[in-house]
Design a protein that fits this description.
Belongs to the bacterial solute-binding protein 3 family. Its main location: other. It is found in: Cell envelope. Keywords: Signal. This protein is about 35% helix and about 25% strand. It is α/β, with parallel strands linked by helices and about 230 residues long. The chain has two domains: about 120 residues, Periplasmic binding protein-like II (D-Maltodextrin-Binding Protein, domain 2, 3-Layer(aba) Sandwich), CATH 3.40.190.10; about 90 residues, D-Maltodextrin-Binding Protein, domain 2 (3-Layer(aba) Sandwich), CATH 3.40.190.10. The strands form three sheets. The chain has a five-stranded mixed beta sheet with strand order 4-1-5-12-6. Strand 2 and strand 3 form a beta hairpin. The termini are far apart. The protein binds glutamine. The site of glutamine (GLN) has 13 residues, from helix 2. Glutamine binds next to helix 2.
Length: about 230
Amino acid sequence: ACSSGSDDDSTLTVCTNVPFVPFEYQEDGEYVGFDMDLMNMLADRLDQTVEVVEISFDSISSGEALNAGTCDIAAAGLSITEERQAAMGMSQAYYRADQALVVPDGSAVATLDDLSGVQVAVQSGSTGEAYANDNAEQYGYEVVAFESMGDIASALSAGTVGASIADLATWQQMIETASGLTLVQTIETAEHYGFAVQKDDTELLDEVNAMLDAAFEDGTYAELYEKWIGE
Ligand code: GLN
C-alpha cells in the first residue's frame, strides 16, 4: 500500500522511540503501548503487520526519518505543531497532552521559579525542549538535551541534572517505576498528539484518520484510553 519504508506491501513500518510510557515501550521483547495498539488497528485495517523501527526522537520529530523513507508512519507521542505539519503529513489529534516538571526526591525545586542555575534535562527534538529553551532566560536555568526518556530518568537519579521538563502522562507513569523522582509542577501547554506520515502520502493519512474516526465512534478508543491512561 505504501510507497516506501519497507518494500514489502504486507508490512506497516512504524518509527518510534522508547521508552515513552504508556504510549510505546518494550515488554518481554515486544513493543507495546497506547500508540502500538492504535498502529496494530491500522495495520489490521490495511491487512498488514506492524514492524517497529526504533530511531532517535529527533529524527522523527524533524520529519527526517519519514521523508528519507525509513518508515511508513511515525507513532511517537508526537505533538502536532505547525512546523511538523509543514514537514510531514500529520493525522487528526488523538490525545491531549501537557508538560511536567520533575525533580529528584528532596530537591529544593518546587516550581519553575526555583530553577535558577539548575540543569534541566529535556528530550532532543521534543516540544518539552522547545518549551524549556523558550523559558530558559526567564527562569535562569540551563537546558541539557538527551536522546531518550530513559537517559533522562537515569541522569536525574544520578544527580547529573537537577530537573526535567517532558510530557506529563509519561512522567506520571515513569515516576511510578523510576523511584526517587517527584513530579512537582504541571505545565499546561495544551498539546495534541498525532501520527505522522510522509509528506505526500495522503493515501495512508486518510487511512489513519479513518481508523481514528472509527475508533472514536465504536468505543475502541475509549477502551484503549481506559487501558493505558486510566479513568
Ligand atoms: N510530545 C512531545 C513531542 O512531540 C514528546 C514526545 C516524545 O518524547 N516521544 O515533542
